[in-house]
Amino acid sequence: MDERTIAPAADYDRLFAAALPELPGARRAPVRAWREGNFERFRTIGFPGPKSEAWKYTPVRALVRDPYVLPPKAGLARAEVDRFLLRERAALRLVFVNGHFAADLSDDLSALPGRAVQSLASALDASAVTPAEVGLEDSSERGFSALNGAFAGDGCLIRLPDGATLPGPVQLLFVSLAQEQPALINPRNVVVLGAGARLDLVETHVVLGPGRHLTNLVNRFAVGAGAELNHDRLQIGDLAGRLIGKNHYQVSADARLTQSLATLGGALVRNEIEAVLDGSGIELGLNGLYLTRERQHIDNAIQVEHVQPGSVSDQFYKGVLDGQARAVFAGRIVVRREAQKTNAYQNNANLLLSPDAEIDTKPELEIFADDVKCSHGATAGELDERELFYLRSRGIDPATARSLLTYAFAAEVLQRFRQPAIAQQARREMLRWLPGGAALEELL
Fold first, then answer.
1. Of 292, 290, 354, 340, which is closest to residue 318 (Cα–Cα)?
2. Percent of the chain as helix, strand, coil, to the nearest 5
3. How far lies 235's CA from each of 111, 238, 263, in Å?
4. I need a surface site. Which of 41, 289, 437, 441 has the fewest CB within 10 A?
């Protein structure tokens, strides 16, 4: 291997050999073969190295040098997670602790018709289900995805038939607890929406306590013709928390997809989004907010591919950086030759609160059609001294004035969340992050 890849350590071979017999579905030949195939692909591909263009800003070596263990099931009191759960009566809540489904903290799924929502582990253990039937097949040349396929512990499987909807939103709450040894957590979620189906999905990742664990997340979505998916994501990370996530969306004609993401902390976080708009009349909105401080590092890598004519995509991301934090935004729009009449927009704005903070923003347009409207923009700057002076002249102290302007900058993204309760959670966490947040809360 050259510097574009990092060879996996022998520890991964030992870990896989020891874990395979106990992984969900591994006693069934199709699932076992799927896992073994993924592990062989992982060994061949390895991890992305420092010369890999898509990963050159991400310090991967810091992730892969630890000797990981797979965390066992852990008990957790409801009171410890209650503040992160949706209170809406019709909501369906599924809680995963260290990658394992926690039935005692989750709502009862048995009343749903046709097992529309279920734990991925229970689906893999079912004798009638193959990996292909639950949408697990993944042939991408991405080492982290192959690693996830080999070790995938649990997650959620949602399958809604044509025209179906659920009474309320579905929330997936993933909680990571402190471990004595570095833990490797591999959740995988699969969502398949039939033609005209509709789903409000909330995905929350929370780190409770310090620890050098790594969450290696893979989400795969198939959005049918005329379907609608609203996907709110909230990531609340400890200063030592690490998450590598990949979201793949396959979107059909006339579908509506909105994803809104708030990443609030984490030692190293990378969010990858790949959306393939394979139809006409699609509307796609990708919204994101990231807050970093101290030496935290957050990446956002997005690729939107327009395959057919007459669809619209809009990327709207904002970042706030303080201390010696670093963030990366790499947004790419690809318009294929057949995708005439495409409208595609991208905007990334960043607020630097410290002279030592760093943002690397890289917007890209790759257009093969000639009848399109596409644009991108990227900015980075400091707080406006004139606005600070205005607030100071109204009797607001300096720290609160800076926090008020920072909040106003970030709040535009939070307004785009589908679920008000999740937007409110993000606001509370952001106010905890900002100096003088308690006083600011009284002003708002």
1. 290
2. 25, 40, 35
3. 29, 10, 5
4. 441
